[in-house]
Amino acid sequence: PLFLWGCWKFNWVGFSLVLSWIKKDINKLMAKYNYLIVGAGLFGSVFAREAVKAGKKVLVVDKRCHIGGNVYTEKVEGIHVHVYGSHIFHTNNKTVWDYVNRFAVFNRFTNSPVANYYGELYSLPFNMYTFNKMWGVVTPEEAAAKIEEQRKAAGITEPKNLEEQAISLVGTDIYEKLIKGYTEKQWGRLCTELPAFIIKRLPVRLTFDNNYFNALYQGIPVGGYTKMVANMLDGIEVRLQTDYLKNKAELDGLAEKVIYTGPIDAYFDYELGTLEYRSVRFETEVLDIPNFQGNAAVNYTDRETPWTRIIEHKWFEFGKDAKGQDLPKTVISREYSSEWKAGDEPYYPVNDEKNGELYKKYKALADKENSVIFGGRLGEYKYYDMDAVIESALAMAKREI
Asked: Would you name the residues annotated as active-site residues?
């Protein structure tokens, strides 16, 4: 009897497995779409466009009430407001540049932020204007000598953290005034506790060049990012205010494959723990004046000012409307950095060793999901510039389709 019971149980398990495989195959055959794309941000929109171009049927869902993800812009007083923080498109990748120019015309905006330290204003990125204001030096040789003098005085040979890396790049004075307070507000941690690599790409120039990005192509889409993404999604079915994770079974049944661009740990219901992010809170207001700060971005680098920077959105488009007329009002956003908690928007992955190890474990789980592809900033737990997101989505589409 035990032997017969064991055989029956074994056969029933096998039969159940066969039934589940058949059910999956039937679902795929009956699927209405080739791809369900979760997220109407840049990654999802680019993949959707490429899939449709290849003759695939696509459905895009997003839990927000708008397309565009974090590059979403909305019009206020004739000004395209960057609702989730400023986004300046920049790239050295001609393929990506040519691609985005299929969906938008870009203006000639150049990112030249200003640092405000207790009312003292300095040019960013760090360049000869910055060094002249800080030390009174006039030549590149004098500036380089001053930086080297302060680096040696600090006794730094191999930078072990962000503080030491910053001092080795720009000296103690600039670190104390223009980096330390801003960075500690941004990350919610002491600079001595942050890894050196965060600041290794810090632009430092011994020239009078105020262009923050060392990129061949740069600008803002005329008409805003929302218009650009809308052009990418033109003719594609999009369902907004649709939470994929809350309706997973139903939505999965609609498509053969899922392109998931949400948080990877949320997909697995945080079963291994929660990945950490930094979040940002915005206070946006309309001012009945034509000019508040005279620049698109001003960073507040002292530790006491609670916000990290103020964005004045009209200067991304030179203070003009679509007809080239001066705009009578202005819109500003104060940005406050904070530790992410459930319900907040995750912005910056905390790419330290602990979170890196946790992500590897989630990545191992993701690799076992045969009909799901994880991509984008949240799906890959990776800080992506916009051009890198688009490059990644194009590469994914080429491999997949």
From this structure: 201, 205, 278, 309, 335, 383, 385
